[in-house]
């Protein structure tokens, strides 16, 4: 991964994650909070299996539920990026006809948001996914990187 300045994205919170054992729910910061490892004796980092543990009953949260949440979040970000408004830089008029390239004032329409947030979120999610062996999430992020020509 690249070493990008991610000061605004140094945490990634999954809101109200429910424990399957005791039904206790809480917010978990996936980027900062790793409560325990299943195999702490493993010398090599790639063989460690990290898990998030419920504070109440000490049961591990289901990794597939967390991965599915992250995939849904990533899909929502991509959809927001594709369906965002375009705005005129000169008169700040929001484009109301999708096929128009130029505003009535003659200025070119620009997307309201850049893909920077999506790229930074993909970097953080890739770090989380590689640490937790979330292959479906990693594949989706790699596809987005190829599609948008983002460098590693």
Number of domains: 1
Q: Report the CATH topology name.
A: Hypothetical protein af0941
* Average of the residue pLDDT scores: 78
CATH class: Mainly Alpha
Radius of gyration: 20 Å
How many angstroms separate the termini? 6 Å
Please bin the fraction of helical residues: 25-40%
Report low-confidence residues grouped into runs of 5 or more.
1-9
Biggest sheet overview? 2 strands, antiparallel
Oligomeric state as shown:
single chain
The helix/strand series, from N terminus to C terminus, equals EEEEHEEHH
Task: Give an overview in words.
The chain has 152 residues and is of the alpha+beta class. It has a single domain, classed as Hypothetical protein af0941 (Orthogonal Bundle), CATH 1.10.3200. It is 33% helix and 14% strand. It has three helices and six strands, in the order ββββαββαα. It has helices at 63-82, 116-131, 135-148; strands spanning 13-18, 25-29, 36-37, 50-51, 86-88, 109-111. It has a two-stranded antiparallel ribbon. The chain is elongated and about 60 Å long.
Give a quick set of tags describing it.
3 helices, alpha+beta, 152 residues, two-stranded antiparallel sheet, Hypothetical protein af0941, 33% helix
Summarize this, please?
This protein is an alpha+beta fold. It has helices at 63-82, 116-131, 135-148, and strands at residues 13-18, 25-29, 36-37, 50-51, 86-88, 109-111. Helix 1 runs antiparallel to helix 2 and helix 2 runs antiparallel to helix 3 (135-148).
């Amino acid at each position: 991964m690249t070493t990008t300045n991610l000061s605004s994205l140094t945490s990634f919170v999954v809101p109200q994650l429910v424990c399957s054992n005791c039904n206790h729910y809480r917010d978990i910061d996936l980027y900062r909070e790793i409560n325990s490892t299943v195999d702490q004796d493993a010398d090599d980092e790639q063989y460690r299996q990290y898990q998030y543990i419920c504070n109440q009953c000490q049961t591990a949260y289901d990794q597939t539920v967390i991965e599915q949440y992250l995939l849904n979040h990533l899909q929502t970000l991509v959809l927001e990026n594709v369906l965002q408004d375009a705005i005129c830089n000169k008169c700040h008029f929001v484009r109301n006809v999708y096929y128009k390239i130029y505003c009535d004032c003659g200025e070119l329409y620009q997307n309201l948001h850049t893909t920077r947030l999506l790229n930074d979120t993909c970097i953080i999610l890739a770090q989380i996914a590689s640490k937790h062996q979330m292959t479906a999430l990693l594949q989706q992020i790699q596809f987005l990187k190829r599609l948008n020509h983002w460098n590693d």
